[in-house]
Design a protein that fits this description.
The complex is a heterodimer of chains A (about 325) and B (about 325). Helix content of chain A is about 35%, strand content about 30%. Chain A is built from 12 helices and 13 strands. A 6-stranded mixed sheet of chain A has the order 5-6-7-3-8-9, with helices on both faces. Chain A has a 4-stranded antiparallel sheet with strand order 11-12-10-13. In chain A, strand 1 and strand 2 form a beta hairpin. The radius of gyration of chain A is 24 Å and the shape is elongated. Chain B is mainly alpha-helical. In chain B, about 40% of the residues are buried. Classes of the chains: A alpha/beta (about 325), B mainly alpha (about 325). At the A-B interface, helix 2 and helix 3 of A face helix 1 and helix 6 of B. The structure holds adenosine-5'-diphosphate (ADP) and magnesium ion.
Chain lengths: ~325, ~325
């Protein structure tokens, strides 16, 4: 119980008659990177604002680090770092001056303040531009400055809303590296995104949001197992006709085989590459290629919503 | 299903609402004092002060100033064609300065996308709003004090005598009221910066209110008084009632309150503010001067009115801001 960092029970937010977040149940444990994924308008930002006490829930309960953000907002906000989507800065001030202001708002005083600011600038790689006006910063630099503003608080939990949005691929990679470093130092991270592919790589667990409801939750391979039926997708290129297809279908743990000329897509519950190679040869086929995909969240998501009606009916 | 939950969170809150207040004040004041728009306006006011006060001192030296006990006060109120007196300018420039300081105070944070970040720090919205207001008021106070010192310095040089105790008290009280007068416009511009997302809209709205009170309110008050309290020819009582109603209505304008205070404080001969209100400051009624303490008492209600209006405007802004969504 003590290692639960975020706990939401039936958390609901209504704007008038519109339900932005609908009976959300969510548990995030210490040291985890949790990905809150879902399309625009799914309710991710609203959830985050409730976690920080910046919006009041309509009903349900939230606990962040064991505290109620609506009743103890100062304690929560002192311990949680928040990077809003498209974070802004005081452009006429330098990076250091921006950090100074945030530090003072957090009641951090000299000499501790300068020490923390220098450390944070170092960690995000902005030390050499610390005294330049933020006006001149690229998007990637601004995003890293946003992280520096979080780090000077030495938070136990970091919440980032769409942190990779509007970054170029290089900046995204650097940013994801930064997130991994933070995780290594033991900080719990919750991040939201609608770009599933990008965050898949860093998240320990993800929750898929749709129209205010958390429709799926678990590790990426758990979700793939549940939604795609098989966690492994194996590409086989082999000559040998129907005999090969039949041999593949006969394998245990194979969920589905689809053929396209000499290309076969095999969905399986395990990594069956060795068995497949053996069966193809035994069936008299000629094996030309063999590879395995880990399933992508995009695929899980797309497939889930193809079957959406069926799931909704069961729920 | 009915929404039972009410507006702002009324429950007991943790910690002080003023946590972080001084961090906000310090940052905002540094911003104000270095901003280009502040420098332009400050330069404009300084130039006006210099010009009008210099002209006034020339007049005073030329005229029968020697017998006057209140030479320093005359520096504010003496006009020399074509320039009006400095108090006349103050009534116009102080609102402009205040509006220029505050018209983008909250919507600017929205548009810069800094608001949700700042409110995610361990402070309440109260501290942010009050901090910005206090920083604006502090900036105004600083600017106006500098101008007062400039005027006194010029007076010392040009007139060759120091101000008397009476004069000093009067000038100080008038300085204080001028700052409060700026406070109203500061609170108004801040309110509009909460209501309107576009700073330009907020600035225009504030300037519209200012124009309304400066140009139109006098006329409207007079028309309203005539309509509500008709005075048939020959009926003196009805006429007095009508004038009193008109006076009451004009006093709803901060401009009127300010000019009445200016009149009473800078013209010791003024013994009452009422029906005898002269239109021009230097056309004082003859009579023995009132002690400064009495003049302060005379303008006490005005000071209270200015402060009360400021508090009301600030409170409206506060309520709106508490209910506002932080997301951009
Ligand atoms: N202040 C508001 N009033 C009414 N509806 C809102 C408000 N804020 C957000 N919404 C709606 O709530 C839904 C969820 O929004 P949001 O949490 O921002 O989604 P996400 O961050 O996942 O893109 C959206 O449909 C949005 O239009
Ligand atoms: Mg969002």
């Amino acid at each position: 119980m003590t290692d639960v960092v975020i706990e939401c029970r039936d958390l609901t937010k209504q704007y008038g008659a519109f339900t932005a977040v609908d009976h959300l149940n969510l548990t995030v444990r210490k040291g985890e990177i949790f990905g809150l994924l879902g399309p625009n308008g799914a309710g991710k930002t609203t959830t985050i604002l409730m976690l920080l006490g910046l919006t009041e829930p309509t009903s349900g309960s939230v606990r962040v680090l064991g505290l109620d953000p609506a009743r103890q907002p100062l304690s929560v906000k002192a311990r949680v770092g928040y990077l809003p989507d498209q974070v802004g800065f005081y452009d006429h001030l330098t990076a250091r001056e921006n950090l100074n202001y945030i530090a003072k708002l957090n009641g951090i005083r000299e000499p501790e303040m300068s020490k923390r600011i220098n450390e944070a600038l170092d960690q995000v790689g902005l030390s050499n531009v610390a005294d330049r006006r933020v006006k001149t910063f690229s998007r990637g630099m601004r995003q890293r400055l946003g992280v520096a503003e979080i780090l000077i608080k030495q938070p136990q939990l970091i919440i980032m809303d769409e942190p990779t949005l509007a970054l170029d691929p290089e900046a995204v990679r650097e940013f994801l590296d930064l997130i991994r470093q933070l995780k290594a130092s033991g900080i719990t991270i919750l991040l939201s995104s609608h770009l599933l592919q990008q965050v898949q790589a860093v998240c320990d667990r993800v929750g898929l949001f749709h129209q205010g409801r958390m429709v799926l939750e678990g590790t990426v391979s758990e979700l793939a197992q549940r939604v795609l039926g098989g966690a492994y997708r194996i590409h086989v290129e082999a000559e040998g006709g129907d005999a090969v297809a039949a041999a593949l279908r006969a394998l245990p743990d194979v969920v589905k085989v689809s053929a396209n000329g000499s290309q076969y897509n095999v969905e399986a519950r395990a990594d069956l590459r060795a068995e497949i190679a053996r069966k193809v040869v035994e069936a008299g086929g000629k094996l030309l290629g063999l590879s395995v995909d880990t399933p992508s969240l995009d695929e899980v998501y797309a497939r889930y919503f193809q079957k959406g009606a069926a799931y909704a009916a069961r729920a | 299903m009915q929404h039972a939950r009410s507006i702002a969170p009324a429950r007991q809150r943790e910690g002080s609402p003023w946590t972080g207040l001084w961090a906000v004040v310090a940052k905002e004041m540094a911003d104000y004092l270095t901003s280009a728009r502040m420098m332009i306006l400050e330069a404009l006011i300084l130039l006006t002060a210099f010009g009008t006060v210099y002209a006034a001192s020339q007049n005073l030296r030329a005229g029968a100033g020697a017998s006057d006990d209140f030479l320093f006060l005359r520096l504010f109120t003496t006009a020399r064609e074509p320039l009006p007196a400095f108090v006349g300018f103050l009534g116009l420039l102080v609102p402009l300065l205040a509006i220029a300081l505050a018209f983008d105070s909250i919507n600017g944070e929205f548009n810069q996308r800094t608001l949700s970040k700042v409110l995610a720090q361990p402070i309440y919205r109260d501290a942010l709003l009050l901090g910005k207001f206090l920083a604006g008021l502090g900036t105004l106070a600083l600017a106006l004090t500098a101008i007062w010192l400039l005027i006194i310095g010029m007076g010392l040089l040009q007139l060759g005598v120091p101000p008397s105790g009476e004069e000093t008290v009067r000038m100080l009280w008038f300085l204080l009221i001028t700052i409060f007068y700026g406070g109203i416009w500061l609170a108004l511009a801040m309110l509009f910066s909460i209501i309107f997302r576009q700073p330009a809209t907020a600035a225009l709205a504030a300037i519209a209110v200012w124009l309304f009170f400066t140009v139109f309110w006098g006329i409207i008050a007079s028309l309203l008084a005539r309509a509500l309290q008709p005075a048939p020819p020959g009926d003196t009582q009805a006429l007095i009632n009508q004038i009193q109603l008109e006076l009451l209505l004009t006093r709803l304008s901060p401009n009127t309150l300010f000019s009445e205070v200016a009149l009473a404080m800078l013209n010791p001969a003024v013994r009452a503010l009422g029906i005898v209100l002269p239109i021009q400051l230097h056309n004082a009624i003859p009579g023995t001067p009132l002690p400064a303490g009495q003049s302060i008492l005379l303008t006490w209600p005005h000071a209270t009115g200015l402060i009360a209006a400021t508090i009301v405007l600030f409170a409206i802004g506060y309520i709106l801001f508490q209910r506002q969504e932080v997301r951009a």
